[in-house]
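Lecture notes, structural biology module. Today: joint structure prediction for complexes of two components.
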Amino acid sequence: MNKRAAAKRGELPRYRSYHPGTQPEYNYPPYASTQKRCPTQPLVVAPQTLSELTGPVFGYGDIKPTDNDLTRQHRGEPIGERIVVSGRVLDENGKAVPHSLVEVWQANSSGRYPHRTDQHDAPLDPNFSGAGRTVTDAEGRYRFVSIRPGEYPWRNHYNAWRPAHIHFSLFGPAFLTRMVTQMYFPGDPLLEFDPMYNSIADQKARIRLISVFDWENTVPEWALAYSFDIVLRGRDATPMEP
Amino acid sequence: MSLYASGNQTVGPYLHIGLDWLTTRDIAARGAKGERVAIEGRLLDGEGVGVSDGLVEIWQANSHGKYAHPEDQQKKKLERGFRGFGRIPTDDQGAFRFTTIKPGRVPGPGATSQAPHLVVAVFMRGMLKHLATRIYFPDEQSNAEDPLLKLVPPARRATLIAKRKAEGALEWNIILQGKNETVFFDF
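The predicted structure, tokenised, for the full assembly:
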């Protein structure tokens, strides 16, 4: 088949389905809120068309170079343990996902979000908003400077506490590569009890949501560092022939 | 090297902190040609209650049926500044509203052509992985031959087709459970 002619007709290599066990179920009773917010009818399996194989394109023009430093958004510095969070965005073929938007948000060091619905009795930090974004470089690398987020209670079950986490939102090259996930911290004793973390059935996949202490990227006298690689859906090695 | 994709996790209740900066309720820039439409609706949970901590993202072609993406190789015009992306958080009642232009037809699998549609991703607290659905347009002859609509059980197709409310205004709701449950796709 002529690849270019096929591309014109919208026949592009498809993205692989998610590997079994690596993704949460929509209905996951340990996370109580899923039960009234999950579809009850089976999803309709559909072919990937040009509409899903494309997706919004963002670039350096959409962000400011300082948007990746959450410690410099106010007059003063936020309270907390300064951290560098960096890593690579890859696809399932191990290929870098370059020039792709990454958005993050997190609680402050006391486990509080500056959000009108967050009523947790912990102090707000006037010097911390908790949001950042960046665009990956040509090798798929990203880097944020922030403070370590605090744990916080969330009422899902008796004495439920979320482990420390940073929310990540990624686009990748297509509608099908869109992903929102959370990064956790190594050694967090709350992970064992957290329904969100445990919603990933596959143990290896679950562990991959935990960042790795990253000695190389620590900054002496200034910041500790964690490394977190994210893998987006990748394409089939060979294009699907009709 | 072969890897498996990372696990998705919920946006949680404080999604606005990280995602509001890119809120886009007017998808078609001023220079974009085409029929202007306003689409509004509500995101409703299994009890019919509006989801106040949800977010809808839209991806669409322009009025010629061309996506602002390097892999769309069709020889069709693309207006400068047309991105085709919308991000609309739901309000306290679970309502959302955006304006755009009706997209043109884009190729489907094989030699088929798809009816005009918007691609939709739905995020919310209480949902661990976003859902994918579509908005089709009412009074559109090509809906009958759309390759994806054809895969949907006939009784459920109406959940994907917006209803005309007034001139230029359409209603389309996302109903997560029960009667008229919206069709979601697995790609």
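Point to remember: DSSP finds four helices and twelve strands in chain A.
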